Amino acid sequence: MGTEYLPASLSENQRSAILDAGSPLLIIAGPGSGKTEVIAWRVAHLLRSGQARPDSLLVLTFANKAALELHDRIQTKIPDVNVELMDVSTFHAFCADLLRKYRPLTRMPRGFRILDEADQLLFIYANRKALGLDEIAKSRPSDFYANVIHCFAVATDELVQPEGMVAWCEQNHAKCGKDEEDLWSERETVAHAYGRYRDLLMRSDMVDFGHLQVLALQLLEEHPDVVAAERARYTHILVDEYQDTNAAQERLLGLLAGDGRCLTVVGDDDQSIYRFRGATVGNLRGFSYRYTGTTIVHLSQNFRSREQIVEHSVSVIRHNPARYAKHLLSMRGRGCDVVLVYEHTAREEVAGVVQLLRRLKEVGHINRWGDVAILLRSVRSFALPYLEALLAANVPYYVRGDASFFQRAEVSQLYDLLNFLGATKPWGDRFLRHSIVGLSQGTISALEEFKESLSDLDGGKGLRKIGVKNASDRVKITDLLDLKRKVQAKGHSSLLEVAYRLLAITGCVARLEEAGDADGLLNLGLLTELVSRWDEYGPTRNFYPFQEYLKLLREGGLDPIVEAEDDAVQVMTIHQAKGLGFPIVVLGAAMEGRLPTSARRQRYEIPSELRASGRPEVDDPHTVDERKLFYVAATRARDLLIVGTADVVEKRGSGPSRFVKEMFGEDLRAAADLGRAYLQAVESHSLAHQEPKARQSFGSLAHYLQCPMRYKFAEFYGFSTLWVEPVDFGANVHRALEALHQRCLRGERVTEEDVSAAVEETWMTSRRGEAQTEAKLKEAAKNQVRGYMRSAGSDLARVLRTETSFAMDLKSRVLGGKIDLIRSMGSQGDVEIVDFKTSKSTRLEEGRIDLQLDLYSLGAESSMGMRVARETAHFLADGEVRSLDWTPGRAEHARDQLASVIGAIDRGEFAPNTAYCPRCDEFNALCPYAPTRKGGREK
Fold first, then answer.
1. Which of 457, 474, 666, 728 has the fewest beta carbons under 10 Å from its own?
2. What is the DSSP string of 216-249?
3. Using an 8 Å Cβ cutoff, are 240 and 39 in contact?
């Protein structure tokens, strides 16, 4: 077979990288060189040429969004192949799947929970006493926990053993001077805490991202048969952003790849900007030494940036030692000059940049504000002057990475109201005067005059006495005081229940929805997620520890959710811009102390002799890393790069960054002469192409079918759902069924007598459940599964697959899910799709359940190439079984129905279905369209 399917626009080196066969392949891909396209075309070529099957390919990257984007690009190259059968994944997701697949060979529980970075902070905070960290956490707790988490993460990624950390700290403690005794004592405490942390994770059936990789590595190291099985499965492994791999990931890849002939890695040592997270560029530089016969292909043609941008960027990065030599060449020709804005003060620099942008817009060189990105080393530290100047100049903008979540008005006021609920003294009463409560001005004036405690008043009667004349205001205040008493009496079942009651009483969600304030509601959704996390991982329902945790988060800062605006200047960190490109880039605050920042040692450092990656390759890794950041920022520009620098910040001297001098030379005043700069109109570039297709489960579509507004609250705004069951009963039943069906697939005889053991083995205890309730639920689960086993009979011999994931493209989205059971229907190859429900059969939900089964049937056909003949819903609570024939007409109708739902979502059609309101436990009291919102009565 030829290669006529490859586009003629590919360069010679790109084609070489795509077509290489039979050797370890290292692709050095400079910025803008089309590396993602090369990976996607290489995968397409491996499939089209017959060198690989979709299920024999493993493609790894680092971020979920990058994995999804890569997945979509591959699918566009080979539309006739189901890419869903491929593993296009992050390292973390791959390791999690590996551990689940071989769970019996590990110490992992069947349903282990994975902590993300936010969960990890909460877990460590909640267990600070057990970890021995309580005493040293009291001074500047935000910085302390950030340092601890960083230390734990690096130790894990670098495969450092706790005993080694403790021994190193003890040795240094023994010989340190008196001025460092407290520091080394503290480091010893943190080293001991790391060992306790690892043990506590396992006892709690939890893992963090780093331990996912370490446990997967241990699995491979201890079980050669698993290594052999995975090598046989994956004939080709491709790794994007290879320069960002850490020591654990590299060792894991080494075991999977063997001699490396199946391995393709793509990276750029000049863009390795995540050393602070444990990434080691030495993995890329040592690749050809580890794998003999390595083919190295350089992608040196830059398709993103104009010639001047490439030349100026290279003039900076070439000062870094220990790097692959590259000869980058722009394929877009010459364009605008690279512009330097050099002023005396940092504020004058900001003013000069914004003035230049305004002038370029006025003369038509900038077509739309959305073409401009301002990139900073730290948005939180350096963005405010830019934002003030943009606002003063009437230039629209949106910000990412400014950690201002708790400064948003709606969040800040709700934070205060949560403190009001926990306050035992009258000082919290003043928060009732916040605008988010929605009281009238007369009521606010009356509350200002009253100096005693509102809790001492006799309900609405007492409020009337102090001058609160508005009846609805009296109801609202009374409800808030009742909620406060309930919280302080510990009468609540969860903190999320309290938060939702607070939102309902204030009516703020309804007001924001009616005002169309999407940003406000998105951030209230994030607030409910924070509360829900406490319910899941927090140590208690008591309100005071929860308040202290919120205080910790507020001190540390969280990024708010901001909807991207298509025609607004984007302000973000350089790290956030990695992998993106913009017509115009402003690289701001390029001053000594800002970029590069001043080097500082980690408080809980881990020495190189303990790290699996060993010593850094260079003597001054900090400056090298900062230069890479400058280079990455500069190479995001397509048509125009503007660099801003100054002599002083306020009155303190710092001076232009050394990287600015490397780019423009020593005579910066001459370089900053805008009168000599050649400028021209830039090409507009939409942001839409940067987003992967949205992924959607049937569960989320079911929310839309129940009520479009419920979908909007849960899926669009991200409001967490209230915890209804004390134990996740349905998930536990499904795990037991899966275990029994897996035994059937292994050819074992399974009977009703095996049910009790299967439920006990797979049961996951809730952190919030009570023992007595859980025991009853466990017995109910056994009864449901026994009932199924009695009715299944010979059907157990027809089991083909259990808990099988699928995904399929439909319109603008990828629909996915997990099929509970697939059964054979005879020698013709027909199959039956089975979905288990732990509820009783009800005609009220028939249409939704039928559509769910239809989606599963479509998924089985498109994802797995199966021929579906029948679909069945098995209701375990009453034993009813409902089956439908699957026909071409039904398939066409299902596609049309699903497409109609997706189209309505894409068009933003969220008309309320008020018939669902009585069953909407979470949002009935919040939604402005509910016939009656829950509130209180005046007392």
1. 666
2. HHHHHHH-HHHHHHHHHH-SEEEESSGGG--HHH
3. yes
